[in-house]
Design a protein that fits this description.
Largest sheet: 5 strands, parallel
Number of strands: 11
Low-confidence stretches: 1-34, 269-279, 364-372
Strand content: 5-15%
Shape: globular
Helix content: 55-70%
Number of helices: 30
CATH topology of the domain at 52-203: Rossmann fold
Mean pLDDT: 83
Length: 692
């Protein structure tokens, strides 16, 4: 090639944004999407036991050029309360300050995703991928999600903090693909199965006497500690070198400024031992004894909360109070050191959660306010918590998805709980459902265990809306399985049909077709026994539709058609235009799959017109997409093009990455067949950018 004809590209270029050609008359490049760098760190601790040696060791290892393809793994191990998580976050800050993680800091607590002792790795991979790319398209299977995560993390200079690992087998699948990344793992015991990684192992012991006393003094900044160093050292010793205990002890001392320090220490009981692990029960007892009655009662009730984050609404539900008393109780618990700051809000340390359970079980000595009838109070609090989450989730569902088929009583205008979460937009409502999904799934289990069958079913219904965009498969299969069991136990025929239909979809998306088929066999059978009310007829149509969809996802469109036709006839008979439109759309897709594009055009034109008249944006976009494909297949590409563009515009407006990719890929093929390479290249570049 002659020198003057060389092409050279320097610097960093977005994926899919280079086009090399002899002559370019017009070029389309989609606008670059602004990327928000994730920084999932809690506020800096005011007082932190530096562990300078460990920090220097990690920084040196992170500065060395990698000798292997994987990320650097820093394994922090030690007993609960030793300060592993605090050190992990501090190491992340140090790496940030030295410019080692310009692509962000991620945090994941594996205990939040643990079910029956095992971490749901597919859910963990999905969460990490979405943290790196909020518009990422998540496939359903573990292997596909792992590959998607590798793609999202490729070449990223980031830090990932993984809390509460129990084995290397939980860590290895979550490692980023980038050798420039640093993964900080915390665990109680040493992880001996981190094979093939660049690992720095840092077992943490209790703070030395001097360091422990120093942290205590920094926490409380009280002249009594300097005036009586022996008493200060004794107080630190009673905390067994645990930073979590020293933080509470410091705040406890600060609260009692008028008492002599030695007198305070005498009030502490001796250390207890539980399960062979030293737990400084005396420190928790002292902090607990100084709480107001409301804060002490909330403390005893918090272990009933199944979620990792404690909000004002949760506190108000547990206390059966308004927002103001709940806020005051939370502030008091945080001031006492009994709640700690997580990246996403206030949380309860596992050690302290155990202490709260023991306080709820009954006093050991004369500590704190009288517990009263804790069993009855706990049961009532669980019921209030379930009812509160049921109401908020139903309200969020209404805002996010609008009115749709449900079998449970909708929330009334007048709240039967003290505190409602404000939802001002569908995006805000969906964000709340995602943020609280662990608590919501946990409440389904609480409701079922406590015999609150109607509440278990009602909680599942908004989780359906959440599942459509956030496929936490293990959680949703477990929850809807409990929903089926609750419906059967309560002998609710409507709920039994609805729950089985909704359980079938995540089953078939995980390729568990026989299990899905069995659920739908029972659902259709029971639907046939229902009466003639509008809701019962909708459920009968829904069961037939789900059975047809199961056939279609297995490629048997011919078997699906009779079910879609039966469902359509049922909806037309009761004047349900939306339901009839949806079945017309499905019949149009079936006609296209069965090789009859002309009939598909007729059906999809009808569905598109009805969806437009009903102003159902999602279905307007989807019917436009399928109509475009039917017209193209029927040899009418000029008519197809505007429908494809409308479908893409609708998917962009809804920020649905899945729908955007489906339309973009079809547009690439469409323009390539028409010989329009320039247009095809533009859409291909946009799809590549969206995939990351």
């Amino acid at each position: 090639m002659a020198k003057e004809n060389e092409n050279r590209v320097d610097g960093q270029v977005r994926a899919g944004a280079i086009v090399q050609a002899h002559t370019v008359e017009r070029l389309y490049l989609p606008p670059e999407r602004p990327t928000a760098v994730p920084w999932q760190l809690p506020p800096d601790l005011v007082h932190f036991a530096d562990r300078t040696g460990e920090q220097e060791q990690v920084l040196a290892a992170a500065t060395e050029a990698p000798t292997a393809g994987g990320p650097l793994v820093v394994a922090l191990s030690g007993m609960g309360g030793i300060g592993k998580t605090a050190l992990g976050f501090q190491l992340a800050r140090v790496l940030r300050d030295h410019g080692r993680c310009p692509d962000g800091i991620l945090h994941l607590d594996l205990d939040d995703l643990r079910r029956d002792g095992a971490v749901e790795l597919a859910d963990a991979l999905g969460q990490l991928t979405r943290d790196l790319d909020p518009e990422a398209v998540l496939p359903p299977g573990y292997a596909d999600r792992r590959r998607r995560y590798w793609s999202a993390s490729q070449d990223k200079r980031l830090v990932l903090v993984l809390d509460n690992a129990r084995s290397g087998a939980e860590v290895l699948p979550l490692l980023p693909s980038s050798a420039a990344a640093v993964v900080i793992v915390t665990s109680h015991g040493r992880l001996h199965d981190l094979d093939g990684t660049r690992a720095v192992e840092l077992p943490l012991g209790p703070l030395s006497g001097e360091d422990a006393t120093g942290l205590l003094r920094a926490t409380v900044s009280d002249p009594r500690l300097s005036a009586d160093p022996e008493a200060a050292a004794e107080l630190a010793r009673r905390c067994a070198g645990l930073p979590a205990a020293l933080q509470v002890a410091g705040r406890w001392v600060r609260k009692h400024r008028s008492r002599e320090l030695r007198r305070l220490i005498e009030e502490l009981t001796v250390e207890l031992h539980r399960d062979g692990v030293p737990v400084v029960e005396a420190v928790w007892d002292a902090a607990y004894a100084s709480l107001s009655p409301d804060a002490a009662r909330l403390y005893r009730l918090l272990p009933h909360h199944p979620g990792p984050v404690v909000t004002v609404g949760v506190a108000a539900a547990l206390l059966d109070s308004g927002a103001e008393p709940a806020e005051e109780a939370l502030e008091e618990l945080e001031d006492a050191g009994l709640l700690h700051r997580r990246p996403d809000g206030l949380g309860l340390h596992d050690l302290i959660r155990g202490h709260a359970r023991r306080r709820a079980a009954g006093p050991v000595g004369p500590v704190g306010p009288a517990e009263g009838s804790e069993v009855e109070d706990g049961e009532a609090a669980r019921s209030r918590l379930v009812r509160w989450y049921r109401r908020q989730a139903a309200r969020a569902d209404l805002v996010a998805a609008g009115t749709r088929l449900v079998v449970s009583r909708p929330p009334g205008e007048a709240p039967d709980v003290a505190f409602d979460v404000p939802f001002t937009s569908p995006h805000e409502a969906m964000h709340w459902l995602e943020r609280e999904h662990l608590a919501l799934y946990g409440c389904v289990r609480i409701a079922y265990e406590d015999g609150l069958d109607a509440d278990a079913v009602a909680l599942c219904e908004p989780l359906w809306t959440h599942f459509l965009d956030h496929q936490h498969y293990a959680d949703v299969i477990d929850a809807f399985g409990l929903g089926v069991a609750a419906a059967d136990r309560s002998e609710d025929p409507l709920a039994a049909v609805r729950m089985r239909c909704q359980l079938a979809r995540p089953l078939w998306e995980q390729r568990r077709y026989p299990e899905a088929a069995e659920q739908l066999r029972i659902a259709v059978q029971r639907a046939e026994l229902l009466g003639s009310t509008e809701l019962e007829r909708k459920l009968r149509a829904s069961a037939a539709e789900f059975r047809g969809k199961l056939a279609s996802v297995q490629g048997d469109w011919a078997a699906a058609v009779p079910d879609f036709e039966a469902a359509r006839a049922e909806h037309l008979a009761i004047g349900n235009h939306y339901g009839a439109m949806l079945q017309t759309y499905l019949l149009g897709r079936a006609a296209l799959a069965l090789g009859d594009p002309d009939r598909a055009v007729t059906l999809l034109t009808e569905a598109h017109e009805v969806a437009t008249g009903l102003r159902r944006e999602r279905m307007i976009s989807r019917t436009a997409f399928e109509l475009g494909t039917a017209l193209w297949t029927a040899g009418r590409p000029a008519e197809a093009a505007p429908h494809y563009r409308a479908a893409l515009a609708g998917a962009r407006a809804r920020q649905s990455a899945t729908d955007q990719l489906r339309v973009l890929d079809r547009l690439v093929a469409f323009h390539e067949e028409l010989g329009e390479a320039e247009e095809a290249a533009g859409y291909r570049a946009e799809a590549a950018r969206l995939r990351g």
